[in-house]
Amino acid sequence: MSSPGLRERKKQKTRWTIQEHAVRLFVQQGYEATTVEQIAEAAEISPSTFFRYFKTKEDVVIQDRYDDLMAEEIRNAPPGLPPLDVVRNAFLTTIAGVTEEETEQVLQRARLQFSVPALRMRALDVMQESIRHLAAPLAERLGRPADDFRCQAFVGACVGAMINALMAWAETAESTDDVSALITEALSVLTEGP
Length: 194
Prior knowledge:
The structure is a single chain. By secondary structure, the protein is mainly α. The chain has helices at residues 6-29, 36-43, 47-53, 59-62, 66-76, 83-96, 100-115, 117-141, 149-172, 176-192. Helix 7 (100-115) crosses helix 9 (149-172) and helix 8 packs across helix 9 (149-172). The protein is globular, with a radius of gyration of 17 Å.
């Protein structure tokens, strides 16, 4: 995977800055009480610039770079690994790459998604997109079409387990180590049962 160019890095930095200010404001004054204009002012951008990066106020909490990173990990996993190991490694490797600085924001975003009804609904709306995005490289590894139903169902089960782990982590989180252990345990249920 090649590293992004200067222009792309600047866009990523702006996106991160907008998201950072949005999450801080949501935590301080509540999601509903925070306006796009306040977020834009805090990030020192215009509201129209906000909407170039995020289609909706909900998306500033919901969207992140992790699906792309996990899909790349699935794509680059060593040949011969069973599908569950491929997906588990993709989830855990991506989480291991989360910096300390990001951890607090990831935690705050998770708490917002699970507690604000509008965000919870938007997260459900985009979940199927995430499942398709992660299932496509798995299907490719297995020599199947990108929209293979069984791959999507399998990744959907893995994502469901991961969401359960994230919800538990959001309630008691202290570090990303906690979420890695929870994800490992949640995914083990797929092979071992309850």
